[in-house]
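Worked example

This section walks through a single chain of length 85. The input is the sequence exactly as stored; nothing has been trimmed or padded.
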Amino acid sequence: MAKRSRTLYFKVLIEQDEDGLYVASVPELPGCYTQGKTLEQVRERIREVIGLVLESDKEIKSEKFRSPGTQTRFFGIEDMHLQYA
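Given that input, the structure is written out below as tokens.
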């Protein structure tokens, strides 16, 4: 009998650091992060890392990641300007 495939949904945060590298992380999966020189490269790498995390922790493959937005909601990013002495 063939194994059923299912789709899991994760929010991925991608930032560009001061050296121009792209850094990707998955807030819902502790320790799930990577970097790349291009957006394409970092997207490919974070998919690989998510796969490795899922293989190593079978409990993560639960219902909570089967539909979009079930875990963390994204609200936005703000620039904060603070003055201090």
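What to look for: The radius of gyration is 16 Å.
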